[in-house]
Amino acid sequence: MSARRVIAAFRDQANSCRTLGSPFTAELCDYLADALGNCENPVSKAVLGWQGDPSSGADSVPLRLTGALHALVLTGADDALGRMYQQRRMDRQLVLDALDRHGDFILNWLNSPPQTNEVARSAAIIAAARFLAGQINLPIRALELGASAGLNLNFARYSLLGDDPDAALQLAPEWQGEIPRTPFQVVTAEGVDLRPVDPLQDRLRLMAFCWADQDQRLARLKAALDMAREHRPRVTAGDAGPWLENQLAHLEQGHVTLVYHTVAAQYFPRDTLARCEAALTHAAESTGPDRVLAHVSMERDGIGDGAALTLRLWDGRQREWALGRADFHGRWIKWCPTPSQGLGLTARQG
User: Fold this and answer.
1) What integer is the mean pLDDT of 208-235?
2) Helix (DSSP H) and strand (DSSP E) numbers for the chain
3) Cα–Cα distance list, 344 to 235, 239, 310, 347 (Å)
4) Distance between CA atoms of residues 256 and 292, nearest Å
5) Beta strands, E only, 42-126
6) Coil, strand, or helix at residue 306?
7) Model-level pTM?
8) Residue 59 has pLDDT above 80, yes or no
9) For residues 138 and 255, is the Cβ–Cβ distance under 8 A?
């Protein structure tokens, strides 16, 4: 039963990779689904005998294995495999040889769950912050839930659709709708994650879990990691619920406290979601025109393509907007702000 579930996870991951614009990684996952059962090596046995849920919604075993292979390429540990990746041409024997030659490295890599930090999602955060600034003209105190390495905490330093040609990181998603232009200022930014990734020490890990044939995505990640050397993100290790309760215990006067998360809430335990929502609700009671709270969400809702973009704003009263939709990897944004209601954090989990 375990082996069949693992193979099914590889097939499912292949489909996801194709949908999200990574045909090479999709082909690699399909090949591994075919080949692992016919291999006699420690890696194949460990993968097929996985103790736990191998699917993308749990242990993500396919991404653990493809991430290990990509790490071998990025470090130059396997020249033949590196040439195969560079040519984007699948050589099945080279893959099998890599599983045999680098068994210890791959087995060690399999112990760690995949963790990415998709900086293209900052395009949606920038747009939401501009829209927010159009409603409330106050400096922003930014708080990110599920921040990973904290690369999206530097969103104010990134350029959206060429608005700052001198910025080191340029975000250019396919855009539908009017582009918000109101400037904003971020005065502080910090985040929380159960297992924060260090953008300096864990650079290889973040790069390896980025799909190898997505050159622009890798270039964005590299630029964000380079920027993190100079502007080091502040990410606390811990559960988002109690951390947010502490952060919102006192709202700073003369600021907008902006709580945001991108494709993270779906991984939070129910208790964490409930505590985050309760913390927002409680803090909202102390808001006013110069002590403002906002909540921006980019999360799966099971409706249509991509993720739903929403904004809730409290400044003594409550207002809500459905801002539009965004691709999970930030490749496109459909921007269409519409007043809405009933956008509680837990309600959007699909």
Assistant:
1) 95
2) 12, 11
3) 25, 19, 10, 5
4) 5
5) none
6) coil
7) 0.89
8) yes
9) yes
